Structure formats: structure tokens, C-alpha cells
Amino acid sequence: MKSLEETDALLKEANLKLTPTRRRILKVFRKYPFALSYNDINDSVKEKLDKVTIYRTLKTFEEKGIIHQVLDTSSQVKYALCNSSCSKHEHQDAHIHFKCTSCHQTYCIEDREIPSVPLPKGFTEVHSSMLVEGICKDCNELALL
Amino acid sequence: MKSLEETDALLKEANLKLTPTRRRILKVFRKYPFALSYNDINDSVKEKLDKVTIYRTLKTFEEKGIIHQVLDTSSQVKYALCNSSCSKHEHQDAHIHFKCTSCHQTYCIEDREIPSVPLPKGFTEVHSSMLVEGICKDCNELALL
DNA sequence: TTATATTTGCAACTTAGTTGCATTTAATAA
DNA sequence: TTATTAAATGCAACTAAGTTGCAAATATAA
Ligand SMILES: [Mn+2]
Ligand SMILES: [Mn+2]
Ligand SMILES: [Zn+2]
Ligand SMILES: [Zn+2]
Fold first, then answer.
1. CA of B20 and C1' of D24: distance in angstroms?
2. I need a labelling partner for B137 at 20 to 30 A (CA). Which of A19, A122, B38, B112 fits?
3. B57 in Cβ contact with B25 (< 8 Å)
4. Average pLDDT over residues A70-89
5. A15-74: per-residue pLDDT in tens?
6. What is the architecture of the domain spanning A2-144?
7. Which nt has its C1' nearest the CA of A55?
8. 85-144 in B: which are within 8 Å (CB) of A?
9. How far, in Å, CA of B138 to CA of B145, rounded?
10. What are phi and psi for residue B102, nearest 5 degrees?
């Protein structure tokens, strides 16, 4: 199975042990094209995992540059897979995120950079994030039927 | 006192009763130039108010267009005073927000509009928000001393 | 002044996430 | 192949943010 190998390679690169739990959680991220919360993962994983283990795995993956937090209006933190340019040293997620107000999923729009805005005198920028809300492709297509 | 009158006028316009609690909470918003969380308000108000009352007041003020939620990376929701163009029907907060990574305060940058980004085919935008992180004016000036 | 809808406070609850600690296990070395 | 050990997992108990139901208090209008 190709994707299992890729998943394992990701973990190896991050110097993480190849555990069933980590493989399962990564598999869930690969399955969905949008950002996932603790609850999403807990619901999608067949063999029940402990809450603490899921939260700790998410934190570890984030630290190692495998996933990144996605700013969102929901009350749970959501994470999405990083692209290969993210490392344990720096997250390279300068892309916008899109939250669908219909299906409530949040997508990384990897090929849309966050525009920079000139700030008032005295303020200096380090990093920006941008969340666009609206209707996603799938929901727009469903509405046409 | 001028600002008390202004505060009362705001409440009147919103069809809200002029209660001591509401006047106190609004006064706190007028005192600080940045967005406030429940905790900020709870700490700044001299006569202790019930937690539930504070949360309910914030919700009421938001519904009436007096304050707006500010997207933030902290774990508490923060609110800032709306400018006069916000109404109970629509919040008009298309400006960017700036979060200082040194003092952790979040400012409305009212005169900087959120730039629009063309979305991939199929996605339609309804609303965007943008959070710029960096060092605020006060913190930058302190660093120069 | 009284009547009434609104607001407030208290207690109990929920939801998201964390901490400490004992047990298990993946990876490495003998 | 087995033993060693640092890392990972699970359980229980906890914290922090926010909510709900209900009874008591109060701002406003008659
Ligand atoms: Mn992303
Ligand atoms: Mn604002
Ligand atoms: Zn959608
Ligand atoms: Zn600052």
C-alpha cells in the first residue's frame, strides 16, 4: 500500500516511533481534504484511542512540522497536514484558509498566499493569518442540483 | 461626565436597559484601546460581577452591534467596541486585527481593510478576517529605551 | 406607585484540553 | 533472538471557558 509507506516516511523523517496510534491518526488526515479537530479524529478512528493520546499526538505532529493549526471560528482547534516545506523548525503555512458556513469544514487553500497589508507606524509584522468564510465547492455544487 | 452620557446613549440606541452592570462593562471597554476577554473584564471591574452576567452581557452587546468578536489565537474569546457603522443587523468590521506577541493585546486596525483574495473556482466568499501578529507600537517603543 | 418584562446571581453542568503517574511497547544493541 | 530502555500510551483526576435553569431583584412605563 503506497500511502502507508508515505505515512511511515513522514514519521521517520520526524524521528518519531512508528506506532499504530500515529499511523491511524495520520491515515485520518490523509483521508479528508479539510482540517480536523480532536473530535473529528476521535470519531473517524475505528479502534478507540484515549483522549489524552490523541491530544498528545496532535501536539507532537505539530511540533514536528507534520500538521499545522488552522485558525477557525469553531470552539475546537483544527489541524491540517502541512506540505513538505514545513519543518520542525518553522511552519511555512502562509496560505489562506477557507471555512464553509454550510458544511463547517475548513480547507487549506495552499496556492493562495496571504496578501500583506501596510501597518500603522510603529507596528511590525511577524506573521499573518487569513480566514475566508463562505460556501465551498462541494456545497455550491450540491445547491445546483 | 461626557463619556458616561455617550455610554448611556449607546445603550439607549440598542434598546437596552441602563443597568449598573452594563455601564460598568462598557466603561471598561472605553478605558482600553484593545480587545478584551471575559477575564480582562472580570479583573477590571471593581464591584465583582457574576461570571454568567458578564458572559450574557457580552453576548447581548454583540447582538446589538455594540461590540464585535475579534478572531484571536488565545483560548478566550475577545471583544472590541464597534465603530458607529455597526448595527444590530450587521457588523461592519472588515478591518484587520493586530495581535502583539509581546504584550498579548489585540488591536482593531480600523483603517486597514482586509484585502480580497481570488478564490479557486467553485468557492464563494461571504466574509473574511485577517489577523496580523507582531510587535505593537507601545512594545516597539519600550524596546528602544 | 404599581405592574411587568428584563436583568441578575447562584448552583450545577458541559465541553475542550491538561497533568501526573503507572504500564506498555518500538527501537536498538548484545 | 532476547534483553534494555527511552518513548508512548492509558487512566484518573483536574482545570479553564462557557452555558443552562430557575428564583430573586430591578429598570422602565403606565
Ligand atoms: Mn493550512
Ligand atoms: Mn475590530
Ligand atoms: Zn461546504
Ligand atoms: Zn505589545
1. 17
2. B38
3. yes
4. 86
5. 999 999 999 999 999 999 999 999 999 999 999 999 999 999 999 999 999 999 999 999
6. Orthogonal Bundle (1.10)
7. C17
8. 96, 98, 101, 109, 111-112, 114-115, 117-137, 140-141
9. 11
10. -95, -55
User: So what's the pLDDT on residue A145?
Assistant: 82
Chain B residues within 8 A of A117 when measuring between CB atoms: 96, 112, 114-115, 130, 132
Ligand nearest to the CA of A126: 4
Give A88's Cβ-side CA count (13 Å radius). Answer: 12
When CB atoms are compared, the residue of A71, A117, A132 closest to B96 is A117
pTM above 0.85, yes or no: yes
- CA–CA distance from B13 to each of A84, B18, B60, B87 (Å)? 53, 11, 13, 10
Structural domain boundaries in chain A: 2-144
pLDDT digits (tens, 9 = 90+) for A130-145: 999 999 999 999 998 8
- Say yes or no for a CB contact (<8 Å) between B98 and A123: yes
Asked whether the beta carbons of residue A71 and residue B111 sit closer than 8 angstroms, the reply is: no
Q: With pLDDT > 70 as the criterion, what percentage of chain B qualifies?
A: 91
Q: What DSSP string describes A29-95?
A: HHH-SS-EEHHHHHHH-SS---HHHHHHHHHHHHHTTSEEEE--SSSS-EEEE--TT--SS-----E
Report whether pLDDT(B116) > 80: yes
Mean pLDDT of B13-35: 96
Chain B stretch 18-57, residues whose beta carbon is closer than 8 A to a beta carbon of chain A: none
